[in-house]
C-alpha cells in the first residue's frame, strides 16, 4: 500500500472514531416497558439507563432475561473509543447467559424457560461460512461498509459492539434480543451453574480456538503474551488438556502471574521487572534457549511499550503497535508458529517482517472465535467432567446496577485490598439471577 493510501486509510479510521460528548439524561426516549442497561455515552463515559425493553421482531429471534453478564478487556476498547462507529446510547456487552423469555415462531431448538448461553457473535446459519461452522465470518449479519474497506471483507455482527460490528444491542442489561436464536444460543443443563456456563459465550471458546487453530501439539512448548482471562485460559488448556511440556506466561500484574504459576504450573515473567536492557523475548530465551514451538498473543494492539509507538498511536501514524508480535516472533524457534487471538484493528509500523520470513515463522491470525463450533463439545467433554474450570478467572460478583463503576475500576486497574486480588473477570447479576454457586465470589461493591 502506498504511503498516501495508508495515510488516507488511517485518517478515515481515526475520523470515524467516537469523540467525547456530554452525557444527556434524556438521550433515550421511551414510552413503553423499559429495562436497565449499560449504555455508551462518550469517551470513558458509560451510564446505567432505563431503555426500551427488547421485543421479538423476527420469527427467528429469542428473547433472553439475562441472569449473568460480565465486563472484560474487549469492552474497555469501546470505553476508550478504540472501536469505530459507536453511537451515543448504544447498549454494551457481548458475553451473557439467561433464561428464555420468548421465542419467534420459527425457533425450534429452544423454548421459554430454557437456560441458555448467548454467543457473542451473530451468525445467520445459512451462509457458506456458517454452514462450515465459521460463524464469526458470517456474510449476512454485518453490513459495515467501513469494515469492508479496511479489511476487504465483513465479519459477523457482534452483540453490543458498535455499528462497525452490526449495531446489535448488548448484554450488559436485564434482557437481550438474540437474532437467529437457534444458532446463537446453547441450552445449559441445570447441573452446570451460571458461573461455569457464562464464559462459554466468548473467552472459554476463544482460548480453545487459539490453541486449536494455531495447531498446538502434545509435548510442545509455548509462550503466552498476556495473563488476562484469555491468556490464563490458554494456559489452562495447554497444561490441563493439550499436554504441553512447558509453558511460560508474560504479564505485568503479579497476582495474575501468581495464579498462573499456582494453578497451572507454568513459568512466569513479570515484564515490568526485567533487568535494564533485557527484552521480553530475551527473558523467554533464557528459559527456552532454542525458542518456543508456539507463541500466543493474547495481549493485543493497545499495549504500546516504547515512546515511539505511543507517540505514533497518539498522533494517528498507526492504529496498532506491533511490539508484542515482534517479541513473540523473536522468542519463537525457527519454523515455529505465532497465533494471534488478541484484537488488532488496522495498521502498524515497524513490524519485523524480515524475522518472520527468514525464520520461517507461521504467523496466524486466529480471527474472532466461532464459539458455536466448539461450545457443545467443550461443555460436554471438559466443563461437565471437570477437566476445564472456566470460573478459575472469576474474581468478583457485582450487581448490574454498578456496571458503569465496573468499567471505571477496570480502566484504572483497581486492586481490591479486601480480596487481595485485582479485578480480572466479574459476574454481573440481575434481578433474574439465581443465587450464586457455592465456591464462587460473593456479591460485593465495586472496589474504589
Could you write a compact summary of the structure shown?
The protein is of the alpha/beta class and 448 residues long. Helix content is 29%, strand content 22%. It folds into 2 domains: 3-202, Alpha-Beta Complex (Quinone Oxidoreductase, Chain A, domain 1); 213-365, 3-Layer(aba) Sandwich (Rossmann fold).
Give the termini distance in whole angstroms. Answer: 46 Å
Q: How many domains is the backbone divided into? A: 2
Helix content: 25-40%
- Name given to the CATH architecture of the largest domain: Alpha-Beta Complex
Shape by Cα distribution: globular
Structural class: alpha/beta
Q: How would you characterize the largest beta sheet?
A: 6 strands, parallel
- CATH level-3 fold name of the largest domain: Quinone Oxidoreductase, Chain A, domain 1
Q: What amount of the residues lies in strands?
A: 15-25%
State mean pLDDT (0 to 100 scale).
91
Q: Under the CATH scheme, which class of the largest domain?
A: Alpha Beta
Widest sheet: strand ordering? 12-11-10-13-14-15
Rg calculated over all Cα atoms = 21 Å
Keywords: Metal-binding, Oxidoreductase, Zinc
Domain Alcohol dehydrogenase-like N-terminal: 59-182
Pfam families: ADH_N (PF08240)
GO molecular function: oxidoreductase activity; zinc ion binding
